[in-house]
Amino acid sequence: MKNRRAIASVLASAWILCGQASLAQDVALPEDIAATTQGLIDAGLQDDVGLKFVEDLTTEIGARLAGSPDEARARVWSINELKELGFDAVRVEDFTIPYWARTRESARVTGPNAQDLVITALGGSRATPQGGLEAELVRFESLAELQAADPATIKGKIAFIDEHMYKTQNGAGYGLAVRKRSGCAKAAAEKGGVACLIRSVGTQPRRMPHTGGMSREGALGDLPAAALSGPDADQLTRLLARGPVSVNLDIGVEYADAAPSGNVIAEIEGTDLKDEIVLIGCHLDSWDLGTGALDDGAGCGIVVGAAKLIADLPTKPRRTIRVVLYGSEEVGLFGGAAYARQHAEELEQHVLAAESDFGSGRIWRFQTNFGDSALPYAAIMKEVLMPLGVSPGDNAAGGGPDIGVLRRAGVPVVTPGQDGRDYFDYHHTPDDTFDKIDAEEFRQNVAVYAAFTYIAADTGWNFRNEPMSPVGTE
Predict the structure, then answer these.
(1) Where is this protein primarily located (predicted)?
(2) Structure pTM?
């Protein structure tokens, strides 16, 4: 925040606006909760607990590939940190996942224009023979073009999808561009191809490839597959304009059917509504190229920092706040699925869920997914956050990757939308490191999460599609 005091002072008028906007609905934010929320926002804009959590995690542990000894060390580290911070019921809930890791990766144009290419293997890639496989390259501008191609043009060759990704504030470009990552190897294999290369799913112009999983089930893909840096994809396109190009692709992998992972959980136990749960989460694992600072160390720091502010209040909130550091998100949303499975009997008691998994850019929009009868509560939350530069969003929040299963089970969710215009410059690359986090933008995230989490936990409001009860009586 450039001017924390100005934003904090504007917040006072928001309480008035909340009351005015809500009078017709006979609901308003109680004065004591409003005052405490303002204090949490003020503290969040100056907080260092969450930022230190990310710095220490990425410095002392580094990359945290799902199922690896590094992810296991991160769980132990997180347990110790959360206990030191004074959270209740700190624990790990174990599960297993298929394990994949790269052991070698290289690519080289062969023949008269011989030169090295900068690549990274995609998660789930098959291994090539030792020393690599060599084949002619066939370029496609999109996955759809590859899928529609004559098999005779691909048989025995390497498919190369050269589709670009474009920057958007809400990250919508990722959903379009990522399809080639999941679909290239399968489509090429079906047509007799021997391997797949894609232009990285990323938005930066540097010679920096972006990894990522090919499958949401963690299974091995159909073929060896790798992502090229943007400049290397451009280089191949120029070479292909001059004539046929052959590439030697050499990838080594380790794979196991079952490896240990787990969700790290910490709580702030509630009072009279302690069996009801407000869940805020992130994912603890990361890809192995960088140190997982933006994806998703930042998210973990944001939810831990916000929860710590609430834990330090003189009085505990009415509902239990549960912080979940999900395991093994990157390779298949295994942590989210395991949590939903292990807590199936208490999902009805989950009154709200939110997930921070889009870096640490400033939150610019707040979406909800509440029952129609709870929309006045959504309006109050949105107006409370407006002085922080957060615009009111619609009621179609997706929640986030790991809590999607909770939303589908009927749990109300919110999406605090971060500005992601530069997120995919670093996402899944060696450049995803702590120095990319802007401290002031990070603290705005902490303030936002602390505010809506506390409101949800202490008002007792019902966010599902049921008749509203008087304030504080649910």
Answers:
(1) endoplasmic reticulum
(2) 0.93
